[in-house]
Design a protein that fits this description.
Length: about 190
C-alpha cells in the first residue's frame, strides 16, 4: 500500500479494514486549514498506541487552502514509517500539481470518468469540438472534470504521450482560474490529442 492515497469521492470513505493493528485519526473539515494540517503532522509523527502498529490518518475535505497544501508537501514526501495518509476529496484538480504527485489516486467514480474520456477519444476532431461546445455552454463542470481526470489516467497508463500529459496538467491547473475559458482550454486539448 502506498503511504499517501487520494480518493476522489463525493460521499464514501475508503475501506481501510485490511490494515492490521491500526490507530485511526479522522479529520473532517470542509476547508482544511494550516492549523489543522499542523495538528495532523504532529499526530503523524507520534507513535501508534499498539507496539508495532500503524497509524492511518483519514482526511475528508472539499478544499485544502494553498498554505495547508504547502505544509503537507514535506510530510508526504518523507512520511513517518508507521503512518499512512488517506485523503478523500471530491475534486483533485484544485490541488497543487506537486502535492497531487505525492498521492496514489483512486476514484469511486472511475467508471464514469473512464466512460467520458473513452467516449471522447473515439470521436473525430469535429465531434469533440461540438461536444465541448455543448458541455461548456451547459456549464457541465462534472463532465469537464471527468474528461480531464480520464485523459490524465490514460497518460498515467502510458496510453498517451508525455507531452499530452503536460498539456492535461496545464488545462487542469488553469480551467478553474479567474477569467479562464473552459471552452478554449478544452478545445486546445481536443486539437492536440
Amino acid at each position: 500500500m502506498h503511504h499517501a492515497n487520494l480518493y476522489i469521492s463525493r460521499e464514501s470513505l475508503p475501506d481501510l479494514s485490511y490494515i492490521d493493528k491500526v490507530d485511526f485519526v479522522e479529520i473532517v473539515e470542509p476547508k482544511l486549514s494550516i492549523g489543522t494540517v499542523r495538528q495532523l503532522i504532529n499526530q503523524a509523527y507520534s507513535q501508534p498506541l499498539s507496539s508495532g502498529g500503524n497509524r492511518a490518518i483519514v482526511v475528508v475535505s472539499d478544499q485544502i487552502n494553498i498554505e495547508a497544501q504547502n505544509a503537507l508537501l514535506k510530510v508526504l514526501e518523507e512520511p513517518p514509517v508507521h503512518t499512512s495518509f488517506h485523503f478523500v476529496i471530491s475534486d483533485h484538480s484544485r490541488l497543487l500539481p506537486t502535492l497531487r504527485s505525492r498521492f496514489q489516486i483512486f476514484s469511486t467514480e472511475k467508471a464514469r470518468v473512464s466512460d467520458i474520456s473513452e467516449g471522447f477519444m473515439r470521436l473525430g476532431c469535429t465531434e469533440r469540438l461540438e461536444l465541448i461546445a455543448e458541455k461548456t455552454t451547459a456549464k457541465d463542470t462534472a463532465w469537464q472534470q471527468g474528461l480531464l481526470q480520464g485523459i490524465e489516467q490514460l497518460c498515467i497508463e502510458k496510453k498517451l504521450s508525455t507531452s499530452i500529459a503536460k498539456e492535461v496538467l496545464f488545462v487542469t491547473k488553469h480551467i478553474q482560474g479567474p477569467g479562464a475559458s473552459a471552452k478554449m482550454l478544452l478545445e486546445h486539448l481536443a486539437l492536440i490529442i
